[in-house]
Amino acid sequence: MEKFRQTLRVRKERAVLVAAILHRSDGSDDMAELTALAESAGAVVVDRFQQKIRKINPSTYVGKGKATQLAGRARRFKADVVVFDNDLSPGQIRELEEIVRVKVLDRSELILDIFATRAKTRQAKLQVELAQLEYTYPRLTRMWSHLDTLAGAGGATAAGAVGGIGTRGPGEQQLEIDRRLVNKRITELKRELTSIDQRRLREIKGRGGLFKICLVGYTNAGKSTLLNTLTDADVFVEDRLFATLDTRTRRWSPARGVEVLLSDTVGFVKRLPHQLVASFKATLEDAVNADLLLHVVDVSNPDAHAQIESVNNVLAEIGCEKSPVLEVLNKIDVVKKIGQLEMLQTLFPDAVAISAKTGLGLDQLSAVVTAKYKGAEIVLRVSSSQSNGKVQSFLRAHGQILDEQYCDSTVVIDARLGRNQLPGLQRLHPDNLEILHG
Ligand SMILES: Nc1nc2c(ncn2[C@@H]2O[C@H](COP(=O)(O)OP(=O)(O)OP(=O)(O)O)[C@@H](O)[C@H]2O)c(=O)[nH]1
Ligand SMILES: [Mg+2]
Predict the structure, then answer these.
(1) What average pLDDT is seen over the chain?
(2) N or C: which end of the chain has fewer CB within 10 A?
(3) According to the CATH classification, is domain 209-373 in 1.10.10.10?
(4) Residue ranges per domain, the chain?
(5) Which residue from 111, 216, 220 has its CB within 8 A of the most atoms of ligand 1, so it is best to mutate?
(6) Which ligand lies nearest the alpha carbon of 296?
(7) Among 8-17, 80-89, 400-409, the least confident range
């Protein structure tokens, strides 16, 4: 195993992709997604191999015969790596590498590799490193060579020790030391991430009572493009998976007098490695704390419906299953499958259809978000002294005035207002406030 798995990076490597299908659960195109993932990681896909299997072979996942065929194809295409769409156990990886004679990676390792390349902020880097230590490194026999690289790049405290050990040969004793170093690093990472978390929490609190909206959705759905279009933010957008790993928050004014905070998040993908969800919880905290989630869907993707399900699963996993969600059907300028948009509109009758790229539908999105921000409409009667002009201007700015009666020094106003704005009005201390409807 050591011979092949010296590094789990696949950049510029020639990859053979394998999807072993046990039973199709959602009918989605696994090979298309695996290809996109591999290309996003920088690999060059030279061959693809889809195989229905009746049961998992405990030692090699696919049958031995298939593994031998795979070896032939890997040789023929001069592959450096074979990537499985399935999650493999360390034992299966070892056995498969013995047969195919090149490095074998599973889907989670591939996703972690992409995340490692994309992480920009210190927090994202630490989160990825933690996920890698928890998922990938226990699967290597010679962990020290990887820790060595880590220590070199990140300045880990283990650096000195690693340099020393790296010169010794592998063996049982070696593994024991590796394990200790990994555990030590995991503890350090968790400690540092907790302190970053606390700082973030203070920041969130500092944002006061502003209405918080979070963009969530499958990777490549167009979340960052939408954030950019709505707020003129300069967020990295690319036709690759997981373009955004670091979240951004911007102010957005969907209507006159309305200001909200809009956050971007990391894209979701089905079967996201559990370790990754766990360590990204802090980043996804924006989603957990949001007053409204905008679930951005790429309607031009034939698997849009299955992607919606995957996103909902991750949302449930991070504790957002009860949050208010508005589905945003994006990329309506490029829908390829006939009836796809209509099908999704039937399933999500409240969804707003837009194109973040051309701007189509953004006015409606702003209107719907503003309505959610304001809450259900109520009709009220407010009386206040004519000298308290603030009440009148508040109702003019945030609601709709239906009637105004002047009597001595008092003005009585009937108006429509969103329920969520009632506290704002109350803070202006009108003499009397009565809810007529709602
Ligand atoms: N045609 C079209 N393309 C779009 C639209 N919105 C986004 N895109 C493209 O889709 C690709 C992905 O967009 P991003 O905004 O990076 O997607 P994301 O959801 O932020 O992706 P991750 O950060 O990877 O999760 C880019 O190439 C965008 O230009 C749209 O409305 N129409
Ligand atoms: Mg993005």
Answers:
(1) 83
(2) C
(3) no
(4) 14-112, 140-205, 209-373, 375-437
(5) 220
(6) 1
(7) 8-17
Is the pLDDT at 150 greater than 50, yes or no? Answer: no
**What is d(CA 396, CA 152) in angstroms, rounded to the nearest whole number?**
61
The pTM of this model reads 0.79
Is residue 224 over pLDDT 80? Answer: yes
Burial degree of 18 (CB within 10 A; 0-12, 13-18, 19+): buried
Report which residue type is found at 54: R
**In the structure, which protein residues have their CB atom closer than 6 angstroms to any atom of ligand 1?**
217, 219-225, 237-239, 241-244, 267, 330-331, 333-334, 355-357
- Per-residue DSSP letters for 153-189? HH--TTHHHHHHHHTSPPSHHHHHHHHHHHHHHHHHH
CATH superfamily entry for domain 14-112: GTPase HflX, N-terminal domain (3.40.50.11060)
CA distance 388 to 383: 10
Closest ligand (CA of 248): 2
Q: Which CATH architecture has domain 375-437?
A: 2-Layer Sandwich (3.30)
Q: Do domains 14-112 and 209-373 have the same CATH topology?
A: yes
Average pLDDT value for residue range 38-62: 91
**At 22, phi and psi to the nearest 5?**
-80, -60
Residue nearest to atom 10 of ligand 1 (CA): 222
Which phi and psi (to 5°) does residue 415 adopt?
A: -150, 155
Ligand 2 geometric centre to CA of 40 (Å): 13
What are the tens digits of pLDDT across the range 275-311?
A: 777 777 766 777 888 899 999 999 999 999 999 999 9
